Every structure is written in structure tokens, then in C-alpha cells.
């Protein structure tokens, strides 16, 4: 019993998601060291909240990236913005409409994902270009319906997204719940096996009876639905939908997948790493912030650290 | 689609769009009008060629927009105040691009993530240089971009030059063939004794070079710079390469097509404003045009395949 525990402990560094969490702990330590341990709890709670948003979009992106080379969803920021704008406009600050508003957001996600997939399937457009050009359309729709107004979310919803349950932020709980569901889907369901098979060898998967087109459709749609869900919560969290609210989530959604140890070439993903990557992305920024660095230096450091992590983590065991 | 048809569709879409613009606004059919229509297309065309260099070796560059912005900031500050230092910085930037290419190949990194990370680095450097919009364009680039050659406007001359030079470089020279071969089959290139790392570094250096040209030209047109001046170039350049008949893999690219693709995208903006379309829909309409052209391309390639099949059967 004891021995197997020790074995498991030494086994940890070999897990693909280990390094993301280890680096997060380091970044957390470096930040709290500067403040002599003060504000540690606040930082942790902020990290858990913001990481939840990144983790939810990251999970959607992870499923898409698992499908293999060329598969990436570039429409995530636009889908987030569009869903948030339409949902908040629909709710118009009224408490009774909170759940129907969520329905509107999810419908936007379904529609956007379905449209993305239709472009990929019917017009045979490479996914990068399909999601990119579709995102232009979503962005225009959002601009058109938003008209520069900032509609406030219903009070209840704002309180819920900023509140916490026994000390754990509500958003963290939602993010963890979605992560657990995703883990079950990816690791324990036939659909997860199909997604991985698609990414490892699409032809072999099709020949062995995997309904490849169903797999691809469901994957793109779920990515868009998770993006719209994040948009709905993020807009309520930050007091309204803004047209640029999704902008930074394009990089984040891809970065958390790669930092978390999933293969960018597809076919091999892991869910815990998404949370590790999401925590790390937030903690790096807050660490650089607390060292009093300006916006420019902070951006440079963030970029360098991402490249450094990717360069250190990959490059082994892949044939040329 | 084979090589001959590859260029046909971009040419047709540009011609169609141009005809539509002239129909809506006959006054655009003049020296001045053409210059106005295509002026801002020059830096976009250069950025598209830069993106094409990366797509030629099966990678994608998500940092080209921030890189062009960074170059614009350098041009409006150092290149204007201390030209020697400015040139040195721009050369270092091209070297950095070459280094990235080598790093991506040697460590087998995903280009999409590395360039996404680099977009933060270039963005950060640009913010450090110009925290708020400003700077001054060097006089020589300003006069170069506003020169008025006889008969044909500068913008058109520049685009023809860009297309011609990059076509010669990539499609006609032996180095160009090797670079495209890296995209086609890197393993075969390595087996026949070439260093893929060096070739990839070369392709990235070319991308850096054209990115620098794009930034310098942009400042020549706008006379000042800011850190976000060219962010949309990332998406425009990818779209331009695809519109021009390029593909994501296999080293299948067309420099002339890429320039035409960039012109088409730039023209789409003018076309929409002539249509009196609300600015809200400008971005969306560009997306719609992109989808439309790709749909037509699909029809072309299907028709093409049917002909081939018919020829084989008959």
C-alpha cells in the first residue's frame, strides 16, 4: 500500500499535466513571496475564478485540437462575444429571464458551431479558414446588435458569478464540473475514444466504423457551446458584454491546451492539464503584475514564458 | 486544382469585384481613384507574401499582425531619429524570425503556438516603443509612397513589383523550389542532403523581411504609428494566401495569387463602403466574400475532377 503510493508519487512528473501545475505553484509562490504571504487567499480565489473561464473555453478547444492537424477553432472569441451580447440584450437585466437567457446563449453556441461545421463539411473549407471567416460574421452580428451599449446583467446573475460557495468561487465549481464531465467523455466514453481515434488516424478510424463526420460535428458544436457559455458567465461577471471581451481568449484557449500537455498534433489530450494551464496563464500575469512591470514588459515575458514552456515540454518522442 | 487553374479564380474574383466597384462608382476609374482604392493594399500585399513564406513550409504565422505593428513603431521612431540604429533593429528582427524557424524545426514545435507566443513579444515591444500613437515617418519612405509615376498609380506599380519579385524568388529560382519542397516533403529534402533547419530558417527570414517591408510601407502611408496599427493583418494575410489559391499544406502556394488575394480583400472594403453598407457589417461582409470565393473554388475543382474522369473514361 505504502509502496504503491510512493511509486505513484515518483510517477507524477511523467504525467503530461504535471509541469503545468508545478509551474503554477512556482508562480504562486513567487507572487506571495513578494507580499510576505499576505493576499495569498485573495490571489488563489482570483486565480481559481479567472482560470475557470479559460478552462471552459480551453476544454472546447482541446476537443477540437484532438481531432488532429489543421483542426482549431478560431471563432471562439467572436462566439463568446455574440452569445454574451444577445443573451444580455434578451435578459435586459430582468431576474426572471436568467434561465431563458442562458438558453439564448447556448442556442447561439449551437448555431455558431453548426455553421462552422457546415462550412467545413459542405464547402470543404480548411477548419482554420472556416472558423476564421465565420468569426467575421459573428463579430459583425455582435457589433450590429450591441450598438456600443453596455447592458447590465441581472443582479442575481452578477451576484452568482462573483459569489462563492463555502469559500470556493461559484465559477470555479462550474469550471470543475465541466472539466469532470469532459474527463468522463474523453477518457471513459466511446465518444472520447472516437475523438482520439479521429486525431490519430482519420482514415483508420473511418474504416473501422467510427462515424467520423458525427464526431467532427459534435466536437465543433461543443466547442462553440462552451465558448458561448463562457461568454454568458464572463459578461455577467464583468458587469456587461463588451465587443472585445473575447479577444484574449483565442490565445489562452490554445495555450492552455498545449501547456497542459495535450499534443498539438492531436489524438492525445488530457483534461487535468487544461486546468493547470489555465491557472498558470493567470498566475504568470499576476506574478509579473506584482513585480510592478509595465504592460509592455509583461506581454514580452508572457510570450517568452509560453514559448519556453512549449520548447521545454515538446520536441521529444516525435518522429520527423 | 492544378497549377494552371490555381491562378484563374483569384484573377476572376478581383476582376469581378473591380467591375462592381467601377459600376457603382464610375469616378473610381481614374488615376486618382485607383490609387485611393489600392493604396492601403500595398502593406497588406507585403504581409500576405510574408504569411505565404510561412505557409509554404506547412506552418502558420499568427504573429504577423503584431510583427508589422512592431516594425511600424520602429520605423516611426528609431528609423526616423537614428537611421543606423533603426536598420540594426529591423535586421535583428529578421534574424529573430530566422531563429524561430530553426527553433520550430529543431525542437519540432507547433508553429501556431510559438507564433502566438511571439505575438505577445512583438506586441509588448511595440507598446514599449510607442505607449501612445505617435512618431514620425522618415521623409524618404513618405516620398517613396506618395510618388506619382506617369500613367499607372504607385499602388498598382508597387503591387506588380511585389508579385513579380516574389514570383521570381519562389517559383523560378532553385532556392525557391527547395523551400517549396520543404512544404511538400521535408523528409525527402532531408534525405537528399539538404539541411531542413537551414531552409526553414530561410523561409522564416524571408517572412520577416517581407513583414519589415510591410511595416515600413504602412508608416509611409499613415505618417505615424501605434502599437495596434496592423493587428488585423494576421487574419487578412491568411485569408489573402488562401484566396490567392494557396493551400495550408504541401508547399502549394502562388505568390502572384497571394498579391491578388490581398488586393481583393482590400478592394472588398472599398466595395462595401460604395454599397453604403453600414460599417457594422464591413468585417462580416469580408468573411462572407471569403466564404463565397471558397465555395466557388470548390465548384471549380469538382468540375475539373469530373472533366478528368470523363476524359479517362472516354
UniProtKB/TrEMBL annotation, chain A:
UniProt cross-references to Pfam families, sorted A to Z: BPD_transp_2
* A cellular component annotation (GO) from this entry: plasma membrane
What membrane topology term does the record carry? Multi-pass membrane protein
**Keywords per UniProt:** Cell membrane, Membrane, Transmembrane, Transmembrane helix
**What Gene Ontology molecular function terms does this protein carry?**
transmembrane transporter activity
What's the superkingdom here? Bacteria
Query: Where in the cell?
Result: Cell membrane
What residue intervals traverse the membrane? Answer: 16-34, 46-68, 97-119, 125-144, 165-186, 217-235, 247-265, 271-288, 295-314
Q: What is the protein name given in its UniProt record?
A: ABC transporter permease
Provide the taxonomic classification: Bacteria, Pseudomonadati, Pseudomonadota, Alphaproteobacteria, Hyphomicrobiales
UniProtKB/TrEMBL annotation, chain B:
Q: How does it sit in the membrane?
A: Multi-pass membrane protein
PANTHER family from the UniProt entry: ABC TRANSPORTER PERMEASE PROTEIN YPHD-RELATED (PTHR32196:SF21), ABC TRANSPORTER PERMEASE PROTEIN YPHD-RELATED-RELATED (PTHR32196)
Q: What is this protein called?
A: ABC transporter permease
Keywords on record? Cell inner membrane, Cell membrane, Membrane, Transmembrane, Transmembrane helix, Transport
UniProt superkingdom: Bacteria
Looking at the keywords, is Lyase present? no
> Which GO cellular component terms are attached?
plasma membrane
Species source reads Roseibium limicola
> InterPro entries this protein is in?
ABC_transp_permease
Instruction: Kindly list the places in or outside the cell where this protein is found, as annotated in its UniProt entry.
Output: Cell membrane
Which Gene Ontology MF annotations are present? transmembrane transporter activity
Q: Which residues cross the membrane?
A: 7-25, 31-50, 62-79, 85-104, 111-131, 151-170, 201-223, 229-249, 256-275, 281-300
Amino acid at each position: 500500500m505504502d509502496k504503491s503510493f510512493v511509486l505513484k508519487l515518483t510517477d507524477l512528473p511523467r504525467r503530461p499535466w504535471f509541469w503545468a501545475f508545478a509551474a503554477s505553484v512556482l508562480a504562486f509562490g513567487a507572487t506571495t513571496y513578494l507580499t510576505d504571504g499576505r493576499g495569498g487567499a485573495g490571489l488563489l480565489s482570483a486565480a481559481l475564478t479567472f482560470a475557470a473561464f479559460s478552462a471552459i473555453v480551453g476544454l472546447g478547444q482541446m476537443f477540437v485540437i484532438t481531432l488532429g492537424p489543421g483542426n482549431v477553432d478560431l471563432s471562439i472569441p467572436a462566439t463568446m462575444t455574440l452569445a454574451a451580447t444577445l443573451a444580455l440584450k434578451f435578459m435586459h437585466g430582468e431576474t426572471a429571464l436568467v434561465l431563458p437567457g442562458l438558453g439564448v446563449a447556448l442556442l447561439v453556441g449551437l448555431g455558431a458551431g453548426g455553421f462552422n461545421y457546415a462550412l467545413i463539411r459542405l464547402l470543404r473549407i480548411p477548419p482554420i479558414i472556416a472558423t476564421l471567416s465565420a468569426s467575421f460574421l459573428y463579430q459583425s452580428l455582435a457589433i450590429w446588435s450591441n450598438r456600443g451599449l453596455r447592458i447590465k446583467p441581472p443582479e442575481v446573475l452578477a451576484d452568482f458569478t462573483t459569489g462563492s460557495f463555502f469559500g470556493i468561487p461559484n465559477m470555479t465549481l462550474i469550471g470543475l464540473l465541466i472539466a469532470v464531465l469532459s474527463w468522463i467523455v474523453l477518457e471513459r466514453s466511446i465518444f472520447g475514444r472516437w475523438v482520439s481515434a479521429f486525431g490519430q488516424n482519420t482514415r483508420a478510424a473511418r474504416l473501422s466504423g467510427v462515424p467520423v463526420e458525427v464526431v467532427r460535428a459534435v466536437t465543433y458544436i461543443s466547442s462553440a457551446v462552451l465558448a458561448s457559455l463562457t461568454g454568458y458567465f464572463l459578461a455577467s461577471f464583468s458587469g456587461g458584454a463588451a465587443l472585445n471581451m473575447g479577444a484574449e481568449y483565442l490565445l489562452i484557449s490554445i495555450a492552455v491546451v498545449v501547456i497542459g500537455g495535450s499534443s498539438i498534433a492531436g489524438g492525445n489530450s488530457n483534461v487535468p492539464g487544461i486546468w493547470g494551464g489555465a491557472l498558470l496563464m493567470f498566475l504568470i500575469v499576476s506574478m509579473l503584475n506584482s513585480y510592478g512591470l509595465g504592460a509592455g514588459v509583461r506581454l514580452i515575458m508572457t510570450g517568452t514564458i509560453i514559448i519556453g514552456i512549449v520548447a521545454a515540454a515538446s520536441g521529444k518522442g516525435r518522429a520527423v | 486544382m492544378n497549377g494552371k487553374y490555381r491562378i484563374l479564380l483569384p484573377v476572376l474574383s478581383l476582376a469581378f469585384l473591380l467591375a462592381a466597384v467601377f459600376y457603382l462608382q464610375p469616378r473610381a476609374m481614374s488615376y486618382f481613384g485607383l490609387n485611393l482604392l489600392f493604396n492601403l493594399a500595398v502593406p497588406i500585399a507585403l504581409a500576405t507574401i510574408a504569411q505565404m513564406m510561412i505557409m509554404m513550409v506547412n506552418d502558420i504565422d499568427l504573429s504577423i499582425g503584431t510583427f508589422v505593428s512592431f516594425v511600424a513603431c520602429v520605423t516611426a521612431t528609431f528609423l526616423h531619429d537614428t537611421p543606423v540604429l533603426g536598420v540594426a533593429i529591423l535586421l535583428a528582427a529578421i534574424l529573430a524570425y530566422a531563429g524561430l524557424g530553426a527553433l520550430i524545426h529543431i525542437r519540432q514545435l507547433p508553429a501556431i503556438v510559438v507564433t502566438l507566443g511571439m505575438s505577445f513579444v512583438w506586441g509588448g515591444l511595440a507598446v514599449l516603443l510607442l505607449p501612445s500613437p505617435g512618431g514620425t515617418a522618415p521623409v524618404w519612405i513618405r516620398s517613396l509612397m506618395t510618388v506619382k509615376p506617369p500613367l499607372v498609380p504607385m499602388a498598382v506599380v508597387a503591387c506588380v513589383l511585389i508579385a513579380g519579385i516574389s514570383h521570381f524568388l519562389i517559383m523560378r529560382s532553385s532556392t525557391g523550389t527547395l523551400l517549396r519542397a520543404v512544404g511538400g516533403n521535408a523528409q525527402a529534402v532531408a534525405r537528399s542532403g539538404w539541411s531542413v533547419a537551414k531552409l526553414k530558417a530561410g523561409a522564416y527570414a524571408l517572412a520577416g523581411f517581407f513583414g519589415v517591408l510591410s511595416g515600413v510601407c504602412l508608416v509611409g502611408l499613415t505618417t505615424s504609428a501605434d502599437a495596434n496599427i496592423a493587428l488585423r493583418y494576421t487574419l487578412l494575410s491568411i485569408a489573402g494566401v488562401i484566396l490567392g489559391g494557396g493551400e495550408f499544406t504541401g508547399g502549394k502556394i502562388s505568390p502572384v495569387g497571394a498579391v491578388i488575394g490581398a488586393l481583393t480583400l482590400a478592394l472588398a472594403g472599398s466595395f462595401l463602403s460604395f454599397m453604403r453598407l453600414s460599417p457594422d457589417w464591413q468585417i462580416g461582409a469580408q468573411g462572407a466574400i471569403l466564404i463565397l470565393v471558397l465555395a466557388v473554388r470548390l465548384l471549380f475543382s469538382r468540375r475539373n475532377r469530373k472533366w478528368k474522369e470523363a476524359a479517362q473514361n472516354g
